[in-house]
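Retro notes (design track)

What went well: tokenization of the new backbones is finally stable.
What didn't: we kept losing track of which sequence belonged to which structure.
Fix going forward: every design gets posted as structure first, then sequence, in one message. First example under the new rule, 238 residues:
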């Protein structure tokens, strides 16, 4: 009987194992076998402790400074700021997609993270604060690094900060929300989104104008929490 027929004929509650050449499709939530896959139809019953499964899927966060002395193949999670984002490349005979980025912590320790497959297409830009769960420590040319796994997840860490600068352009002439602001501060341009929850104080009809903006970011989008226009001693907006 062919393996596919044996699999279809398997009873429920049967313990089995599969090994080698397993293709995991996380999007459609399925596992595909290949001609090289080993399928073991009989095996002893076993139980996986819930804590062990949880630790595998969500390993504890370790300091980036500890990665150089950590063993390879160890699973871990890290936090930090994205400081470099490379281009997506196609490598190998199986045309795998990869992208290298660099994560830096508050103490200026950094580590290279290689993103494989669908993770290479994540929307990432420098200066984002992120928490990355489920990476694996590897070594290349005697340098420790981390790589994505099929169970890796990435979430943005929300940040709030103040910007004082020149508001020079607005995407909506009628101020229909949501719209974007172009603000220049210390030679850096920011695109800031005004949504239904944003508070705007002052007249922004005439540009350019100096503004004080409280912002929030939870990913690539910078949102306006509150914006106030600056005025001089006579009350004239500047």
């Amino acid at each position: 009987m062919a393996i596919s027929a044996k699999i279809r004929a398997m009873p429920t509650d049967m313990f089995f194992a599969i090994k080698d050449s397993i293709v995991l499709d996380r999007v459609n939530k399925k596992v595909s076998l290949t001609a090289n896959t080993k399928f073991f139809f009989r095996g002893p019953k076993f139980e996986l402790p819930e804590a062990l499964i949880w630790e595998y899927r969500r390993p504890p966060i370790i300091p980036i400074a500890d990665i150089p002395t950590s063993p390879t193949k160890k699973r871990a999670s890290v936090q930090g700021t994205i400081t470099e984002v490379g281009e997506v490349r196609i490598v190998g005979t199986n045309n795998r997609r990869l992208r290298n980025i660099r994560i830096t912590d508050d103490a200026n320790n950094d580590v290279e993270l290689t993103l494989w497959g669908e993770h290479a297409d994540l929307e990432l830009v420098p200066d984002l604060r992120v928490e990355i769960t489920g990476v694996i420590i590897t070594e290349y040319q005697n340098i420790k690094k981390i790589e994505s796994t099929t169970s890796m997840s990435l979430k943005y860490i929300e940040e709030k900060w103040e910007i004082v600068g020149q508001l020079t352009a607005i995407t909506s002439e009628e101020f229909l929300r949501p719209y974007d602001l172009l603000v220049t501060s210390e030679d850096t341009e920011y695109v800031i989104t005004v949504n239904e929850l944003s508070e705007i104080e002052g007249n922004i009809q005439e540009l350019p104008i100096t503004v004080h903006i409280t912002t929030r970011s939870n990913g690539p989008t910078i949102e306006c929490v509150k914006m106030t226009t600056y005025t001089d001693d006579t009350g004239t907006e500047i």
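Added context from the reviewer: The longest helix spans residues 50-57.
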